[in-house]
Amino acid sequence: GAGVSQSPSNKVTEKGKDVELRCDPISGHTALYWYRQSLGQGLEFLIYFQGNSAPDKSGLPSDRFSAERTGGSVSTLTIQRTQQEDSAVYLCASSLSLAGGRGYEQYFGPGTRLTVT
Amino acid sequence: EDKVVQSPLSLVVHEGDTVTLNCSYEVTNFRSLLWYKQEKKAPTFLFMLTSSGIEKKSGRLSSILDKKELFSILNITATQTGDSAVYLCANTGTASKLTFGTGTRLQVTL
Predict the structure, then answer these.
(1) Do B97 and A113 touch (CB under 8 A)?
(2) CB contact under 8 A, A45 and B101
């Protein structure tokens, strides 16, 4: 079946504008994760969803960042009033569940490269 | 705070060489350790390890976990230019979120 998809693949925006990034997980995967990878850096956890709820928002860098998930499927990550330091690749991953075994295997989408000018 | 450290940071080898990539970790609630290959944007899943001493193998790649010493290694034998990538190690801790190391950049030359 189809893998994780993300859109747009690239986004260039002006500082101060809002952006919305979309993630469509693998069908049947109940857990969904957002990560950020800045140039030359490792992946940084942002937020995860189990179903439509996000029990852990501790990774969101500031209150300009928010995310939601509807219908246990598609998720959007919104960044308000973008800053240049928000420039990064935003990666989404999904897994079968949060439980053990294969539920820990996270599969990544192709990412959205965000550039804030 | 969960932590994952990978070494070396980068490596250049000749095609046909064997390489060993290292990953050490500190985690509050260990659940699993994962290896990914990242060539462009999306990390591609390679292995998940949960038990000590059991080798996972896929073609020329293999990995093993030592839960007592808190490390894992990824071996690649008979390397090919297509193996050139960043190899990421990640640990599943609290709430299944992955804590990643900064990766090892492998370059395989002809």
Answers:
(1) no
(2) no
